[in-house]
Structures are given as structure tokens and as C-alpha cells.
Amino acid sequence: MSAKLELSRDMYLEAAAQKVTMSQYLEKKDPTPEGEKLDAFQRQLKRLGIVTKSIFEKGIYADPVEAFYRTSESPVLFPETIARQVREAISQDTILPYLIGQNTIIKGDAYRTFYVEDQPEKQRKKRVTEASELPKAKIVGKEQTVKIYKFGRQIEASYEVIRRMQIDMLALHIRRIAMQTSKDKVEEIINVVINGDGNNNAAPELKLKVDLDAGATAGTLTAKGLLAFLMEYDPFPVNTLIAAKDAFIQLVLTNIPSLSTADLLRLLAQGTAGGVTLNAPQLPNGAVRLFWNTNVPSLKVLGINSQYAIEQVTEAGSDIQEADKFITRQTQVLTVSENSGYSKMFNEATKILNING
Question: Which domains does the chain have, with CATH numbers?
Fold first, then answer.
């Protein structure tokens, strides 16, 4: 079927109107048969004889970028080739994928998130007499919409430079640039965790000495304080910690008598301790991911349940707006961007440990 599908610049306009990526658009036009290893976009590359990856041991080498300009159809595949590299690099970032609990695609540039109206004294399950009304839990829209930002980069290079590069070498440079986009997104997520998304939902801050361990010295993390912090999460056990570098070092080096914190958590998860059965299902069950990030304030640790904390909102089709310029060579600046925003789903899934407090 791929051979019968004629590529044209208008496809990007149609994809944008449908709010889908070019890959999705081609898949709709030419669905991948069951058992086929190549998707619709890859089959188009194969049909036009464009080799995008080198396989050195087989003597196969990627084409130069100018291969995308051999025919009237082939330039159409160039921008999506770039976009796919960006999406793949972002999905493989060392931090970003572990901070997003929900991905939502929207059709416009505004989005209002939802939350469960939290009135514990009214919503707690309790015994009711026959014919009495059960307590209500409302799902309502938040007052403030999610702020959508344009994440991306302008890649400036002359056509002469780009066309002589092998496609996989250009892809490598694009992936490097996309890594910075991931860092920009992580910075915004950290800001939302700490300060909220504009809906009065900043993360509660717990001070080590004041709130968690009265015997601690401000500025020095204790095992008791860390354990008390982990016990503050209800109903979502913390499974991800993002710390400032100085706090990260203390987290790693903190010991409980002669037992490391990691060993203690493993012990609690496994439910055994020297012949005595222990089980603490309210604490993290299994590994707790630990990251450091320079955007976290000194001596602070952000704790989240990654499944319930952050929602990523992306405007569909926002990554193909510059496709026409790519195709017609009207510019020496390749614009790779995506319109995204972040909201907090459940504030109970986010808290801050202030070691210096």
C-alpha cells in the first residue's frame, strides 16, 4: 500500500488540522499490517530508498541529508525524521519520564485540569443508617488553566553544512539538542511541584528539626527524620525523590545504626528482620528512585508519587508547525518545538523535606 501513497507538503497541513503527528497521519493513511516490523513512516523511507542508520558490520551506511531532496516526495519525510529523533531522545531522558504520571493531548492551547474536592470530614466513608445519604466526593475543574509553554530550540546551520552530513550524524546532533529540551521540562516540573500550578496547591514543606526529628541538628539529615518524612505520605506512598546535590549526598550517606536507609527500606519491603516479621505497606514498596537536580533549592528534597503527582499536557500537532519551511528550504534555521504544560493532579502526592529547618 505504501507505494500507492503519494507524499505532498499538504499532508502537514492536514495532519495539523487533525492535531496529529506526521507519523500518526501516515499510519491512518497506510495502516501497518499485523506482523510488519516497519511502521508507515519507515515504509515510506524504504520506498524512497532513504537509509537513515548506518550498520557498519554489514557495510551499510546512512545517506547524506541531501537524500531527502532527490525527488519531489522525499523532502516531506525530512521534518518528521527530525521530530521522531526529538521525541525519542526526550522519552529516554534520565529524569523526565519518571516524573510524569499522566500524558494528556489537547486540541487547543488551553486546558483546565480536575481534582477531587478534598473535604476529609465530609468524604470519609462512615456507617450510615438505612435511607441516609452517603457522603459525596466531587470531581471538579480547577480555577486556573494549565500554562502552556513552547519547549524547543532553533537549530542554525547552513544548508551546505546540513546536506553533507550523514543522516544519522545529524540525528545524533538533534538528540543532543533535545536533551536540553528535556532539562527545560524537568525545570518546569520542579517549579510546579514546589509552587503548584496556580491553583493554590504548592507542596507542603516539612522541616527536619521542627516537624520530623526534634533531636536533629538543622542542616544534617537523620535517619529518624527521613523515615518520618516518608511516613507523611497518605494515601500515595512516595516513590521518587529529587534532591539538591548537597541533600542527595546526605540521603545516600545517612545510616540507621549500621544499616543504610536503602537496606532498611528493602528490609521493610521484604517483610523480614532477623527472624521477626515486619511489613510496612504504607512505606515505599520496592526501590525509591533518587535523583539530584540543580533546580532544587539547597538542602531540600522533593518527594513525589510519580503516578499521581504530575500531568503533562501537550498541544496536539504543535511539533509540525515549521514543516513547510523545512521542506522548501526557505530557512537555514530548523525549528524543533512542542507546546506543553504541567499540572499537579493530587497535591497529597507531593511534599518537600527541608533539611535545614
Answer: 205-311+347-354 (3.30.2320)
